[in-house]
Amino acid sequence: MDVQAYAPLISALVALLLGLAIGKAWERYKLRDGRWIDRRKVRDSQHYVLGLNFLVSNQIDLAIEELSRAARVDADALEIHLILGNVYRERGQVSRAIQVHQGLLQRPKLTRLEHSYVLLCLGLDYKRGGFVDRALEAFTEVLRLSPDNQYALLYLQKLYEEQHQWADAYRVRRQLVDLNGPDTQPRNLAILGFIENAMGMEAAKAGDRDKATKHFESAIAHDAATTPAHLNLGDAQLAAGERAEAVATWTRLIEVSPERAHLAFERLERLYDSEGQGRQFEADCRRFIDGRPQDWRVRMALARHLSRRGEPAAAFPVLLEALEQNPHGLTVHQAVWDTLRQLSLDSALVQRYIDAARSAVFFLDPHVCLKCHYRSTELLWQCPHCHEWNSFVEERIAAARQPSTEM
Ligand SMILES: [Zn+2]
Q1: Mean pLDDT, all residues of the chain
Q2: How many domains does the chain have?
Q3: Whole-angstrom distance, CA of residue 43 vs CA of residue 341
Q4: Of 163, 192, 227, which residue sits at a domain end?
Q5: Does 343 lie in the same domain as 329?
Q6: CA torsion 18→23→26→32, rounded to 10°?
Q7: How much of the chain exceeds pLDDT 70, in percent?
Q8: Do 232 and 120 belong together in one domain?
Q9: How far is the CA of 367 from the centre of ligand 1 (A)?
Q10: Alpha-carbon distance 174 to 171, whole Å?
Q11: How far is ligand 1, taken at its centre, from the CA of residue 21, in Å?
Q12: Both 224 and 131 in a single domain?
């Protein structure tokens, strides 16, 4: 998951360094243009361009080979060594990357910008190698040199998040929000909301309910769509005996994030059940479903409630509607069978289920393209979407219980 999350960051950084490097190379040619041209150097700089090309096309070994040659020819070129170090790091050779980047720091005449980029790369090396303190130090130093370096802020935020230092993560994220223009604000605020929610959960764990409540409220104020903050706020309110407030909080979640409504309904069901107000829960669910017919999760919640209440005959049609909306959901099919068993496998109802399943859009024998994830109901030899040959595999869900591989 980490790799996934960082992939865009890393490619952005590589792109940035490429830009920096290409700009530098251009500068050098321009400077040399009109004066005398070092023919040997111009020829040898092919290694550099080739190396960058290999890097872009993800042929890492060849890239290292060419970049190393370029670095030998032009030992002064900072950007080549910078990139070479980054490639070592991305390949997992962290100590080598650190060695290269530390070597660059020893250079006598680094500009402020160069200094901060070398430190940024070194910080990434440390982070990759698991040297958290040194990485924190490096990113902090980058920010001392250039306070609005967004890469340093972003990496710092992620490091603090990984360490669960939520207050620090929040402070850094706040700086990023202040730096960015209004167009990127919504997403920035959403992330602030999630960090603030984490701060609230930490306070709740430590038993400080007031502090937790303040954080949850503030998270919702950042972004009303911070779903877990609504759930947690309602839990905290209920624990403090504020029943009406808890219901209002969960009801608000249903309004602002209807696609997550089932999470609020689960809590509401527990509450209403404990008060013997099942009818109220049923009415709320049905009103919600009327306004949002595509929702299958709330239908599942309602059907589960009806079954538990001893009314499987009322649950059954609700489940068939859920099946219509999500024919692939194994949990829906399981719930149908549980309910059918409660109804003593009434053969007319079983037939209704079979008909409903048959008419639903359904991959009866699903296959998936490994390259582009195109799905097909049968095995194909060439993908109609990405045109790759022989790229289909049977799509299977992993068994819930894997045979033990330990010992
Ligand atoms: Zn494909």
Answers
A1: 86
A2: 4
A3: 79
A4: 163
A5: yes
A6: -120
A7: 84
A8: no
A9: 11
A10: 5
A11: 35
A12: no
Measured in Å, residue 381 CA sits from the centre of ligand 1 at 10
The model's confidence at residue 2, banded by pLDDT at 50, 70 and 90, is very low
> Is residue 21 in some structural domain?
yes
* Local confidence band at 407 (pLDDT 50, 70, 90 cut-offs): very low
Q: Give distance in angstroms: CA of 101 to centre of ligand 1.
A: 40
Question: Domain of 186: which CATH number?
Answer: 1.25.40.10
Rounded to whole angstroms, the Cα distance separating 132 from 124 reads 10
Separation of CA 4 and ligand 1 centre (Å)? 20
For residue 308, is pLDDT > 80? yes
Residue 393 alpha carbon to ligand 1 centre in Å = 11
Tell me how many degrees the CA angle 398-401-405 measures, rounded to the nearest 5: 100
Taking the centre of ligand 1 as the mean of its atom positions, its distance from the CA of residue 222, in whole angstroms, is 40
Residue 44, token pair as written in the block: 């040898």
Q: 201 and 242 share a domain?
A: yes
Per the DSSP assignment, residues forming a β-bridge with 369 are 392
Please tell me the predicted confidence (pLDDT) of residue 254.
Answer: 96
- Cα(375) to ligand 1 centroid in Å equals 8
* pLDDT tens readout for residues 121-144: 999 999 999 999 999 999 999 999
The residue with tokens 């962290």 is 94
**Alpha carbon of 366 to ligand 1 centroid (Å):** 14
**pLDDT at 43 exceeding the cut of 90:** no
CA of 359 to the centre of ligand 1 (A): 27
pLDDT exceeds 60 at position 24: no
- Compute the average pLDDT of residues 217-246: 94
pTM listed for this prediction: 0.74
The two tokens of residue 46 are: 């092919």
Is there a single domain that holds both residue 241 and residue 137? no
